[in-house]
Amino acid sequence: MKTWIFISMFALLPLAGFGQTCESTLTGRVTDYHSRTPLKDATLLLIGPNIEVNTNAKGDYSISKICNGSYQLEVSHPECSTVIVDIVVSGNQNFDVTLEHHLEELEEVNVVGQTVRDKTNSALEEQLKLETIETYSAGTLGDALKELSGVSSINTGANIVKPSIHGLNGSRVLILNDGVRMQDMEWGDEHAPNIDINSAGAISVVKGAAALQYGGDAIGGTIVMEQARIPQNDTIYGKTLINGVSNGRGGNITSELTKSFGEGWFVKAQASFKRLGDHEAPDYILSNTGVQEIGATIQGGRHQFTSGWDIRYSYFTSEIAILRASHIGNVDDLIRSINNGQPEVIRPFTYDLQNPRQDVTHHLAKFKYYKRFEGLGKWNLQYDFQNNRRFEFDVRRGELDGTASIDLELTTHTLSTDFKWDAKEDYQLHVGLMGRYQENFPNPATGVRRLIPDYEKFDFGVFALGEYQLSDMLLLEAGLRYDFNRIDAQKFYQTSRWEERGYDEDFQDLIVEDRGTSLLVNPVFNYHNISATIGGNFQFESGAQLKFNYALAQRAPNPSELFSDGLHHSAARIELGDLRNESETSHKISAAFSKDFDHWGFAFEPYANWIQNFILLEPTGVEFTIRGAFPVWEYRQTDARLFGSDVSAYVNWSDKWKTDHQFSIVKGKDLDANSALINIPAANTRNSINYSVPEWKNFQVSLESQYVFRQNEVPDNITVFSPEQQQDVLLEINTAPDAYHLLGLHTQMEFPLGKNKTLTTSLAINNLLDTNYREYLNRQRFFADDLGRNILLQLKFNY
Amino acid sequence: MKTIKFLSMAVLAGSILASCSSDDEAPEEINEEETITTMTVTLIPDGGGTTITLQSQDLDGDGPNAPEVTVSGDLAASTTYNGSIVLLNETETPAEDITEEVAEEDDEHQFFFVTTGNIASVTYSDEDGDGNPVGITFALTTGDAGNATIAVTLRHEPKKPNDGTLGDAGGETDITQTFNLTVN
């Protein structure tokens, strides 16, 4: 095509040279790419002779008295992106132009991370901007997300942080990493998302199951991590962040570089390295809590307006040491730990990562192709591959100490496609299909019975989402999705366990082989799940906004909820799944009302979630083994109800002083047992005061107070027989720790370093007063205090 | 039309993906190498008499069944017994002797004996390379006739040396079993 223009240019040059054909007229029509509607008042500039004309009401234009030859024509319209096209004029001719008016799709040189579009129109949704993500560069994804109201986390120490949305976590929270649904064994409480936070350009959180395009089982919500858009022109840019962290005596470095070549070609590379030693509580070292993380991503492709493709590969590996004192032998050890008030093992500071520890590696590869059809919409096709390998090392006897107790390899292939009709101004339709195959391989070399069995899983999903702009003020949306899941597992059960669970009555036909004390069984379960959403977004003339949404979601039980069986050494508990578990069904109603005044604004977001067959894991009793008594944690199903509300407000006191306020509360109830639900975050409030003076090198300083109330609504504790004490003892396994208050300080300045180069320095101090505290949602609260003061120094270079 | 074509293509590709045949080879069964199923405490009276064995056996390991505890007979009053402990993993054939592992790593292990009733004393008869007690062998002296209990606990990675109590020693419990005894 280009060659052709080039050749014809040469062919036409001599003609232009004669100067006798300056009588040509160029006419045509400018229309919208999607809807084909004519665009009025579009400006056409013929570069060279610099003749400028506008289109009339019908979108028609006419440029007369031009010489034959080759030109560039610039076409612009206030609501559209400007295009420059090459044309060859040879006599009178017609030339129609289509313009793209969807501004959010513009591939301009934009400020990174500012073009995030909402994933839904009516559900509760919040974004984390790049600026905020960067302040958590040395932390984890879960830490950063806690900035958002209604988002908390379930922690295992400071390094394993699982996001929890409106009180729900694990398999109920989907994480999309650049369009790929993470498949990284999200079922375990101590399995953190395998994501390098530094690879994200922006993060959106949909609090609920309304974003059906990503999956129908997001009863908690969906976390969407996106990449910054890459400009189409020929440019190169990058950034490097260096963090020093006092608590852990280490830091991290992350760097990225993007090169775009024009015409949509680009390549981008990013890498991070993080290393911390033992963390410290105010009074002691938290022995064996170091971490090492390496992340790298490379991607490239061609993004043009009408079509494009890209390919991406990312690698993430983390080695996380688990608090030594949290590795215990039996219930007496647990009682002792709870009563002691401080960890049993406190050793001098070290960078060594010893057992117990986890070593997890995640590979992700993705290929995506898209094409736009004029007057119709955009079609996407994506294939992604993920491989997750997890080793968990326990403190073991003898030569086995170097052998992992858990060695799982999860491989997932997903093919998905969707089409979005966005040609019409008033309504849009988005439909899609997804097919997935997953295989789990637990390596028998561990010498420990498998906690998660060998299985193959097949998923198929289909969805349709529509939105309709009823009036200038009201936008309605609705969606429907169907998912089919099949899990085909092969598992050994101890005969005694098989009978204790009553499976010999219900599932005797699953037995493939009876080996005496053990049984090989082959459960194959199918689940059919429906999810749906309906909602609206009402813009009042006063500027206020009301969103309301109902979401129905169903989630099939995960492998852990079905098959867990045995002693989880790192948690010193026997975990028992149940083959009878069925899909959960959630009905969630949410609303959001927000209004901005001249100097202040607020948002109020109440929600209610009723979940039938809610699967929960909670302590139920003890089992005796030769090693003593162990608490038994059983998965069971119940009907649950969650009520909650997030409230936020800001006040601009002057152009320098600003305050932010946030309050979240959620109440969870087990309706069958008429008791509180386990692991529901306590009410908390965050208030910050910010002072900024842009003239002083963009100086900013903020002081934040975080107050976490005591969780008073917890399930009852259990009574266990202590062999050591030879009597029944109340095991305070559900008692929540006291309320706590933390202060944090953050300050930052920017220094320009010549053209397009900036150095940003920031200093943050977390837990400023070195307060002793324990958090209810930290699984290590039985053993040790949470982190003490932490000073973070960050240098950021943009170039 | 074009769209429909593309969509049907995608469905086709999806079904090819889904129909990948599964290999139904049975997974390899895992024998837990670390499990201790059986602890046998043998008490041989100093100077002759009936040997008494105390045994705790839990063949399903971490399974739901509680260990079976047996005591072969009554102890004689005011007698010193030479005690020894044998740990076995009977899920393997032949049964694996775990005592050997404990003996090899004696600096990381220690048995603790907590008694009530008419047992006069329990003293260690062995020590590790650092001169700290281990407890694979020990001496037990009974008191007058009556009832007694002895709890035998094996700790992995206890604090060594310690004051002989479980609370001070810390570490993780590998085994713990209480035996009810009668002294005649």
Automatic annotation (TrEMBL), chain A:
Main localization (coarse): membrane
Family that this chain belongs to: Belongs to the TonB-dependent receptor family.
KW Disulfide bond (keyword) present: no
Residue ranges annotated for the TonB-dependent receptor plug domain, each copy included: 128-222
Keyword field contains Membrane: yes
SUPFAM superfamilies attached to this UniProt entry: Carboxypeptidase regulatory domain-like, Porins
InterPro entries to which the protein is assigned, alphabetical: Beta-barrel_TonB, Beta-barrel_TonB_sf, CarboxyPept-like_regulatory, Plug_dom, Plug_dom_sf, TonB-dep_rcpt-like
Keywords assigned by UniProt, alphabetized: Cell outer membrane, Membrane, Receptor, Signal, TonB box, Transmembrane, Transmembrane beta strand, Transport
Subcellular location: Cell outer membrane
Domain TonB-dependent receptor-like beta-barrel: 346-768
Coiled-coil regions listed: none
Membrane topology: Multi-pass membrane protein
Family annotation (Pfam families): CarbopepD_reg_2, Plug, TonB_dep_Rec_b-barrel
Record protein name field: TonB-dependent receptor
Signal peptide: 1-19
Organism of origin: Flagellimonas spongiicola
UniProtKB/TrEMBL annotation, chain B:
Region (Disordered): 157-184
Keywords noted in UniProt: Signal
Segment forming the signal sequence: 1-18
Ranges of Polar residues composition bias in the record: 174-184
The protein, known as: Type 1 periplasmic binding fold superfamily protein
